Amino acid sequence: MMRKSWWKVLGAVMVCSSVVAGFMGPVPVLPILNETIRNIYFHVPMWFTMITLYLISVIFSVKYLNSGERNHDIMAVEAVNVGILFCFLGLLTGMQWANITWGDPWPNDPQLNGSAIATLMYLAYLVLRNALEEEQKRAKISAVYNIFAFPIMIVLIYILPKLTDSLHPGSGGNSTFSDIDMDNNIRPVFYIAVIGWILTGIWIFTLRYRLRLVENNRNKLD
Amino acid sequence: MSFFQQVKTLMSKDVLLEWRSKHAINSILLYIVSTVFVCYQAFKSVDTLVWNALFWIILLFASINAISRSFVQESQYRQLYYYSIASAKAIILSKIIYNILLMSFLSVIAYLVYSVIFKNPVGDPLLYFTAILLGSVSFATVFTMVSGISSKTGNNSTIMAILSFPVIIPLLIVLIKLSQNALQGLERSTSYGEIGVLLAINVITITISLLLFPYLWRD
């Protein structure tokens, strides 16, 4: 049992320790940011987890188109479901942070708008699935849309904010994390938080996937 | 028939069908003119920022209307016939090229009508024209594939809007920025980045459409 689920334990331990270290640990004293810099342990990992889950979803959509296996389709949609959850968490933590540091929960920022639009894209994916009755057709067409939308989402979240002025680090002449802001006390906790949240996200995704399998088995007529 | 011959024949078929009925062109032209006129009545005079945004919004809705029909105007049986005699890649490529032609024509007309009714404040007309052409190419490549997807679902128009808006917004952001540069008559070298991004996104969308469409049409 331990051999199979070591990564779940690792994820849980990493998240817990990053929460404890995140609230208790030493942080640099910076103007404007002050103590809110601790939010970096919670806000940023949400986005990394979201991107990882969307990536998983695209991979399984590609696999579905190649194999036509129903399980791959279920994996793709469950990854999107959990990804949307993390996207909302990222938006919430971000809005809280923005309210304190930038004075507005929704400043006109390309990264912010980009991630909101990316959410619309994946909500549209779910609406598209609801619009299609027939199971195989639904799986195939939504897989096509998922793959079609993914590169444009990458452009939206990663490339466009770099081109324009953004309040976020790493764009429009702002320094990136690694240059100045990321002090050596923050770095280890931040990486632990990122890996921990990604593992937790994948765990939630596998749980939902297995739940769906159980439901499908129950509904099967035999 | 070779691949390019197939594309050419299918495209000329589309053009011929359109030429005989003139249904799409006329209705979209009327749509554009009346929307421009409604906007004129509502705004009377606008500053350059609104001028630009309004133009792209009119073009966006016109192109959605024009392209959403590209897979539903012919009956399913006839489409099945096309799929049996031509490759799926040739079909999607011919649709994309046809829609690029259609959209370029429509957006040039829209631009003329728009600048006649509203005063035209463009500082660098050549760059603005490039932006319009790039815009119609982008609309055509993205919406053709999305209309292929939405034609597979029953209720076409809502799904088409829901699916295409999030995908087109990044392109629209770049387009509005590029055309704003042209409006203000900025140095051309400042806009090369935007043109590059637009071209790159278009190449990506066409490649993905070519790869994915063969999976889409088979029912």
From TrEMBL, chain B:
**Transmembrane stretches, start-end:** 23-43, 49-72, 92-114, 126-146, 158-176, 196-217
How this chain sits in the membrane, per its record, is: Multi-pass membrane protein
Alphabetical list of Pfam families matching this protein: CcmB
| Localization (cell) | Membrane
Which protein are we looking at?
Answer: ABC transporter permease
Q: Which domain of life is it from?
A: Bacteria
UniProt source species = Sphingobacterium olei
UniProt keyword Transmembrane, yes or no? yes
Which GO biological process categories is it annotated with?
cytochrome complex assembly
Supply the alphabetized keyword list. Answer: Membrane, Transmembrane, Transmembrane helix
State the family named in the UniProt similarity comment for this chain: Belongs to the CcmB/CycW/HelB family.
Q: Name one GO molecular function term.
A: heme transmembrane transporter activity
Give an example GO cellular component term for this record.
membrane
